[in-house]
Design brief:
Radius of gyration: 17 Å
Distance between the termini: 15 Å
Oligomer: single chain
Shape: globular
Structural class: alpha/beta
Helix content: 40-55%
Order of helices and strands: EHHHHHEHEHEHEHE
Number of strands: 6
């Protein structure tokens, strides 16, 4: 990882990095899917945890195509996502903000910040506005239905590069480095159980929280 002041932009994942919301998302997947059975709901939650950073649309598509065996009870992906959004919005507005971001912003005030998340874009913008942290991310707040690779490619230009992405999942690493963006793993709220060995195996820089960078 280069010195932070050598980057032209900082990019952040949301869940588990900016907001302590990983468990909120896991609980929401379970709540929405539980009407199809607890076993099926647990399978969806496990898939969600093992594929952190991928949009809810892809996860419910997997749920519909690979977990639900009785095709007569399938809802449309959009309906599942709507139910999920209702549950998530109920709890996201009460989620804990990582207060270290304010100190980091004070330390690097001239570097633009962006959010690139697997969460729903309009939902993210609403929550960040309600929490009065949207202005920190002057480079934009982006999310699904676009996937992270597409968003990164849109952000990757001479003005914004080199860039670093702060994330907490394996997909965060794979998607950002695919777009030639440096990656730093943030472990404080991650749901990746083997994150340390994953970082060692892939020579990934990691921090517990942003206080170590200030």
């Amino acid at each position: 990882m280069n010195k932070l002041d050598s980057y032209k932009s900082f990019i952040f994942d949301c869940d588990g990095v900016i907001l302590n919301s990983n468990k909120i998302k896991s609980n929401a997947f379970y709540e929405v899917a539980s009407k199809y059975g607890k076993k099926e709901a647990k399978k969806l939650v496990n898939y969600h945890i093992n594929n952190g950073g991928i949009s809810r649309y892809k996860k419910f598509e997997y749920f519909s195509n690979n977990i639900l065996l009785d095709k007569t009870i399938k809802q449309s992906i959009n309906e599942l996502c709507k139910d999920f959004s209702d549950v998530v919005l109920r709890d996201l507005n009460n989620s804990q903000v990582n207060t270290e971001i304010f100190k980091l912003k004070d330390s690097y005030p001239k570097i633009p910040w962006s959010i690139v998340s697997g969460g729903d874009q309009e939902e993210l913008r609403s929550v960040f506005k309600n929490k009065e942290i949207d202005k920190l991310f002057d480079g934009g707040i982006y999310g699904s239905p676009m996937d992270k690779v597409t968003i990164f490619k849109n952000l990757c230009n001479e003005k914004n590069m080199p860039a670093i992405y702060f994330g907490d999942s394996k997909y965060d690493f794979l998607s950002s480095t695919q777009c030639n963006i440096d990656f730093c793993f943030v472990s404080m709220w991650t749901e990746v159980k083997n994150w340390r060995s994953f970082c060692y195996q892939n020579n990934i820089n990691y921090i517990n929280n942003f206080s170590t960078l200030i």
